[in-house]
Amino acid sequence: MLFSILENPYNMKLKYWMWTFLALLFAILAFTGYLFYKHVFRPVDTSYPVTVYIPTGATIEGVCDTLSRYGLVKHPKLFYWLADRKNYSHKVKPGRYVFTKPVSLNNLINILRSGNQSPVQVRFNSGIRSIERLAVVLTHNLETDATEVETLLKDRAFLKKLGFDKTTVLAMFIPNTYQVYWNISAENLLLRMKREYDRFWQAGRDEKARKIGLSRIQVSTLASIVCKETLKNDEKPVIAGVYLNRLKIGMPLQADPTVIYANQAWSAKRVTSRMLQVDSPYNTYKHKGLPPGPICIPDMASIDAVLNYQKHNFLYFCAREDFSGYHNFANTLSQHLKNARRYQRALNRLRIYK
Question: Comparing C-alpha atoms, which of 328, 288, 295, 329 is closest to residue 312?
Fold first, then answer.
C-alpha cells in the first residue's frame, strides 16, 4: 500500500516541483547574498586616492551625491538603507576624508560616522604685512571663510582676550606648518595659533626677552624689522645688535623698512627724502623707539636673532654695493656715510632711483 502511494505519478510530480522550487529559492537567496556582500563588504572599484569634503550642515542626500560623484557609492538606495541601519543618516559629521586605498560601502559609512577625518596643512611664511592678507593665507585649505578670520582679527574684544590689538596681532603668528581639521572654526583656528605662540615663547625665549628688557611683542616688532632688512640668517644677529645699541642710547632706529611700511611703498628699492617726511608712528626716522607693532610677521630666525643678538659697537649699517644681500657695518657716522655713498652710486649706475 505504502509503495503504491510513493509510486503514485501525482506524488512524484509534486516531489519534483517541490525540489525544483527549493533549489530555485536557494539559488535566489545565494545570489542575493552574493550581491549584498559584493555591494556592502567588497571594496568599491573607483580611482584612489579619493578626497571627500563634507561641509558643515550637509544632509545625507548631499553626502550621497558627493560620494556618488567620486564613484564611492554605486547604489544610492543601498547607501541610504545601510546609513539608516548604522544611525548615520541624521548624524552627518562634516570634514575632509581621505581614502588612500579601496574601501567597502560598510567601512565607508563607518569612517564617516566616526568623524575620523584627515587633517589639512595650514602654512604661512614670514613677511605678511596685513591682517587681510594673513586671513586669506590662513584659510586657503579650510572650510572657514577668510572674511570670518579677518573679522575676528579686527575684533577688539576678541583680541584683548588673546593679549593683542590690531597693531600687534601679527606678532601672534609663528611661521610654520600646522595640521588642523578642514572644518575648524575661525575662532578655534586663532585660539590654536595662540597656543602655538605660547608654546614657542615658553621654550626658553621668555627668559631671554626678560634679560634684554623687551616684551614678547617688542621682540617680535624688532624682529619684523630685522626680517625685512636681510634674508641672510647669519647676519641677522648683527643687525639686531645695531638696533639694540640704538635703543640703549636713545637714538632713533632709522629703519628703512619701517618707512616703506609707513608709506606702503612695497615696491620701493630705496628710501627717498619725500618718504622720510611721512607723519606716521612707523616712521622711525621721526619717532624714537620701536614702532607700535610688527611691520610684518617675522620668521623664527629673526626672533631668535633678537633674543641672541650679537654684542658689538656698531651703530650703522648699509647694504653692500655688490648687491650680495649682506651689509657693511660702521661704528661712526663718517664711516657709515662713506659706505652709503658707495651703495648709492651702485644704485645710480643701475638707474634705480626709487
Answer: 329
Examine the domain organization and report whether 197 and 209 are in the same domain.
no
Task: With beta carbons less than 8 A apart as the criterion, state whether 316 and 239 touch.
Answer: no
269 and 167 belong to one structural domain: no
DSSP 169: G
- One domain for residues 247 and 307: yes
Integer Cα distance of 349 and 162 in angstroms: 49
Rounded-to-integer distance, Cα 234 and Cα 326, Å: 10
Residue-range definition of the domain harbouring residue 343: 205-349
Assess if residue 300 is contained within a domain. yes
Q: Give the model confidence (pLDDT) of 192-246 as tens digits.
A: 999 999 999 998 999 999 999 999 999 999 999 999 999 999 999 999 999 999 9
Same domain, 331 and 249: yes
pLDDT, tens digit, 9 for 90 and up, residues 232-273:
999 999 999 999 999 999 999 999 999 999 999 988 877 889
pTM given for the model: 0.85
Report which of 300, 161, 286 is spatially closest to residue 236, judged by C-alpha positions: 300
> Hunting for cell 559609512 — which residue is that?
109
